[in-house]
Design brief:
Distance between the termini: 33 Å
Shape: globular
Oligomer: single chain
Number of strands: 15
Structural class: alpha/beta
Order of helices and strands: HHEHEHEEHEEEEEHEEHEEEHHHEH
Helix content: 25-40%
Strand content: 5-15%
Bound molecules: pyridoxal-5'-phosphate
Strand order of the largest sheet: 1-9-8-5-4-2-3
């Protein structure tokens, strides 16, 4: 258990043993090769293909650039259907490519795109669907696939939350035309900063490679207006180290997750995460929905109370991306009412591999404090 005076943050980066990392990076001092698709970059890519069970992967400096460049490489135009219940990066990547995000509502069960509302949003300007596997909850990939095929649309998943998951034995990165993973320090798996796009079509891979490296095809041929989004050798080395420990990390997360479940299950007015049958979860997040009328307290009240005890939960995702200040007047969050409601009710509780079960007990006790007092009175 942590010193109760020390704050508990919503997440804490996992670190490989220091000696292991030092051993891993020692050869870099001999080679002097620090970036530009060196041996670590290539090794990491191979390991990811294996681990994720995907045909191809292109590495990036971070997840956001992976999103932006994949959207560009896919040649998307006009409108893209997505959801506002995500990290703002998803929406920014669409807008920064000069495209119009069309927001589809989410379903209230697992907060992924509501496939029953998807088709009504397709117009003759729609080029793609960019759904998000929120909290690692897998989207309805089969229905999305069927709708996309019927209308000739591309599908690109924001899989930033879903690293390492499998659905009926298939790696999550295999669905759709491509998927993006983020290896940011706060994610289940990280390379300090980093990202990847997994894809099927080799032509897309060539385009991705070019875009992240200034459009350079060969020494004298620059045939694309690219940028710089390469992953460096230290990032790749960190990724390689962390990948070795990922199974244990996820097993520890699972224990924390299950302890939360055992403490909070059955409490009226709380909705806890549920995993789709057939999904091997990575236990990335523990989002709780607070139904104020039943629970007796709002999400914001619980958030404040936790905070006053040094426990920093997160209103993740609040605000919706279509309600962000930079998009004021441009989009209407009222058009995605379920997402709007959930964004007011959701609180993501601290969850990381080294969070002690005693700390989980304390967090749950604080969450239920008011409630138990009230129950005590009746
Ligand atoms: C983290 C995240 C991103 C951005 O990834 P970075 O590696 O931080 O750039 C995009 N989408 C979602 C859903 C994320 O959680």
């Amino acid at each position: 258990m942590k010193d109760p005076k020390e704050p508990i943050l919503v997440t804490r980066s996992s670190m490989p043993p220091l000696e292991e990392f030092i051993e891993e990076i020692r050869p870099i001092w001999d080679s002097h090769w620090l970036t530009n698709m060196g041996v670590y970059h290539e090794r990491f890519k191979e390991q990811l293909n294996q681990f994720l069970g995907v045909p191809h992967t292109e590495l990036f400096v971070n997840g956001h650039m992976a999103l932006e460049m994949a959207i560009q490489a896919m040649g998307l135009t006009g409108e893209v259907i997505t959801t506002p219940f995500t990290f703002v990066s998803t929406t920014h990547a669409i807008v920064r490519n000069g495209l119009t995000p069309v927001f589809c509502d989410i379903n209230p069960e697992d907060f992924t795109i509501d496939v029953s509302k998807l088709e009504a949003l397709i117009t003759d300007r729609t080029s793609a669907i960019i759904p998000v596997h929120v909290y690692g909850n897998l989207c309805d990939v089969d229905t999305i696939d069927a709708i996309a095929k019927k209308h000739g649309l591309k599908v690109f998943y924001d899989a930033a939350h879903a690293f390492g998951e499998r659905y009926h034995g298939k790696g999550v990165g295999t669905f759709g035309d491509a998927s993006m993973f983020s290896f940011h320090a706060t994610k289940v798996f990280h390379s300090i900063e980093g990202g990847a796009v997994c894809y099927h079509d080799e032509a897309l891979g060539k385009e991705l490679y070019k875009l992240k490296n200034f459009g350079i095809l060969s020494e004298e041929v620059i045939d694309g207006v690219g940028a710089n989004a390469k992953m460096n050798e230290f990032q790749a080395a960190m990724g390689i180290c962390n990948l070795r420990h990922l199974d244990e990390e996820i097993a520890k997360r699972k224990q924390v997750f299950q302890h939360y479940m055992s403490r909070l299950q059955g409490v009226k007015g709380l909705r806890l995460p549920a995993h789709k049958p057939g999904l091997e979860s990575n236990y990335a997040y523990f989002p709780v929905i607070f139904e104020e009328e039943v629970f007796g307290e709002s999400r914001d009240q619980v958030y404040d109370r936790l905070r006053s005890c040094g426990i920093i939960a997160r209103k993740y995702f609040y605000p919706l991306t279509n309600a962000c200040d930079c998009y004021k007047g441009r989009f209407s969050p009222e058009r995605t009412p379920t997402a709007l409601k959930i964004s007011m009710q959701v609180l993501t509780l601290p969850l990381y591999a080294d969070l002690s079960l005693t700390d989980v007990d304390r967090i749950c006790q604080i969450v239920l404090e008011q409630k138990s007092e009230k129950v005590g009175l009746t």
